[in-house]
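Consider this record:
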Amino acid sequence: MHVMGKLLKSVKPIAIILLFLFIPFVDITRPFHGMMLQKAQGGDKVSRLQNLENYDVLDQLIVIPQNPSNPDAIVAMVERINQIDRPVLELLASQQVKVRLFEGNLTDEPLLYYLKWQKPRGWEQDISWQDVPGSGGSWLISAKIGASNPGSGHGSFNLELHEIGHTVYRLLMSEQKYARRIKRIWNREAEAVFPGQDYFITYASEYFAEMFSYYYYGSDAANKMFAKAPETYRFFLKLQDLDIHQFEAYYY
């Protein structure tokens, strides 16, 4: 028994070492539905995404259905995400964030099933998470395919950019210099952009996420944003020089 005890003690460290050697080769998308862009099917339209300038980073981030029913909508969503400054995309990738573009209900995803009967913040009382087309703020961002525009079950300027903005907000708020500036521009400009809209005036994260969607959607939307919120615009402009190494690894 004494010899067996010694043997077991020596086996445990070896097993732990082997486990950590194996982990990098595990496909971390397996716990949830979908596959990375490179492996996805969708004809020439999806394959042409490989020509996007940030495709190498997008392929680390974006998860889509294996056989999507609306590849046109996926292409449009990925092209919009590609417009986000590369350092911001690299920050998300370095934190192992995944952007899940899904079909069906949000809570069909096993990792989000626990939300099925919970009420999302700021929504009508008879709405639960299973009715909501997107979620963000954590390592798993979700946006429903074909629901990008306001009126598609949400009121955001753009669904996928808004949800990504929530996660970027969380990461930036982990650094004091960004947290102070975000709070300052929110206090100064939220009322001017969204007069009388308590949702954006009360929650800095919602203001940031919505401004994120305006800024990265395109030049017309960004110019409109600049007219009402110039300090917020300048904040996002500086993200093109973001140093991702200043953020804690594995924040999520």
